[in-house]
């Protein structure tokens, strides 16, 4: 069942290039340049979307907020389901609400969906289990096609959620007149290149295992990122604490000097997720503030980023250059492998971490 892997989590991390390629094949026309989404997915009259989820799925929404706003110019709100459901926020009747869930059975997300149903134009779910309650109760459900995910720590479901959300953001951009056929084709080609780039990231597994030997000694670890890499920092920290039980926090790089920098000393590893994009120099300057206080920096970037900013860091990981918009999907892989190998170094139960359930069906 584990297909030769030691753990389901390792197998599910390794499956990502294949399942993402499958999801792309399903939602992209055979010409490779057009979208193949159900006809009900039409954003022409939608003026806002609200995305609601829990845990890792909420971080997928957080990344997608950047895509909806930057690519489609569509205002997007995000919330975690346990807050949303009791806050009972006002929702516009011309808006859509999106619910993202691997299991489709998460109690808070289901309750949030039931609340939104009477308040928005359409409820849309992005789920892995097509027969689930959330899939059945939403007006429209889009499967992420990740296949069964057994590991409690979500990996391939996360990147497949991101993939489907990216395609939805592109559809919104087309429907709102923000993207012409050529622009769409360019984005779709960038997405179709991702599985190959992810294979490259997977080949860094041994280098990541070596870094993880030292991370396993830490008491606290910080993850930093800017833009859509900020939610990836949150996801990296969640994954690490779930399976290695090391205290980890993700922060937006720009928040560093508003508090967390007080934690930095030579014992605190700081993992900086920073592709060489438009925000790179800003993030690097935050990284240098960490190094000036003897923080141990692991810089995850591409070759150009590592060449420009790698000196003086504790360690670097070089990923292939990714299309800037969709880099978060690629950077999920090293974040997952760091958590996995750190947990292995600590000898914890990777697939069944203590206190956690795969599906949280009670609040
Ligand atoms: O099944 P769901 O996607 O609704 O589950 C949401 C969270 O419980 C889930 O993502 C959780 O945070 C994972 N253990 C993260 O690895």
TrEMBL record:
Subcellular location, record wording: Cytoplasm
EC number(s) reported in the record: 2.6.1.16
Top enzyme category: transferase
This protein's UniProt keywords: Aminotransferase, Cytoplasm, Glutamine amidotransferase, Repeat, Transferase
GO MF annotation: an example: glutamine-fructose-6-phosphate transaminase (isomerizing) activity
Domain SIS, residue spans: 37-178, 211-353
Reactions catalysed, as given in the entry: D-fructose 6-phosphate + L-glutamine = D-glucosamine 6-phosphate + L-glutamate
Residues of the active site: 358
Record function comment: Catalyzes the first step in hexosamine metabolism, converting fructose-6P into glucosamine-6P using glutamine as a nitrogen source.
Subunit structure: Homodimer.
Protein name: Glutamine--fructose-6-phosphate aminotransferase [isomerizing]
Organism expressing this protein natively: Fuscovulum ytuae
Full-sequence portion shown in this chain: 244 to 606 of 606
């Amino acid at each position: 069942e584990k297909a030769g892997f030691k753990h389901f989590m390792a197998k599910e991390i390794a499956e990502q290039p294949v399942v993402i390629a499958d999801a792309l094949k399903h939602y992209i026309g055979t010409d490779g340049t057009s979208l193949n989404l159900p006809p009900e997915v039409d954003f022409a009259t939608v003026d806002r979307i609200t995305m609601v989820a829990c845990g890792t799925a909420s971080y997928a929404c957080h990344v997608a907020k950047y895509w909806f706003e930057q690519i489609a110019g569509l205002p997007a709100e995000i919330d975690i389901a346990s807050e949303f459901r009791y806050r009972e926020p006002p929702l516009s009747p011309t808006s859509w609400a999106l619910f993202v869930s691997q299991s489709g059975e998460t109690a808070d997300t289901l309750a949030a969906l039931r609340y939104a149903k009477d308040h928005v134009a359409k409820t849309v779910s992005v789920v892995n289990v097509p027969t689930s309650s959330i899939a059945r109760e939403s007006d429209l459900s889009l499967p992420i096609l990740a296949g069964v995910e057994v590991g409690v720590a979500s990996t391939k479901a996360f990147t497949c959620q991101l993939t489907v959300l990216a395609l939805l953001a592109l559809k919104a951009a087309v429907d709102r007149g923000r993207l012409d056929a050529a622009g769409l084709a360019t984005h779709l080609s960038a997405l179709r290149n991702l599985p190959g780039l992810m294979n490259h990231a997977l080949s860094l597994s041994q280098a990541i295992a070596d870094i993880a030997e030292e991370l396993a000694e830490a008491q606290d670890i910080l993850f930093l990122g800017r833009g859509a890499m900020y939610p990836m920092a949150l996801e990296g920290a969640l994954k690490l604490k779930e399976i290695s039980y090391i205290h980890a926090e993700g922060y937006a790089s720009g928040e560093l000097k508003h508090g967390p920098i007080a934690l930095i000393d030579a014992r605190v590893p700081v993992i900086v997720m920073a592709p060489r994009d438009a925000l790179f120099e800003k993030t690097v300057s935050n990284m240098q503030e960490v190094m000036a206080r003897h923080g141990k920096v692991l810089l995850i970037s591409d070759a150009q980023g590592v060449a420009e900013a790698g000196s003086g860091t504790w360690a670097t990981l070089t990923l292939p250059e990714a299309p800037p918009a969709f880099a978060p999907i690629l950077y999920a892989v090293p974040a997952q492998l760091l958590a996995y190998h750190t947990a292995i170094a600590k000898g914890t139960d990777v697939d069944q971490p203590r206190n956690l359930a795969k599906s949280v069906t009670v609040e």
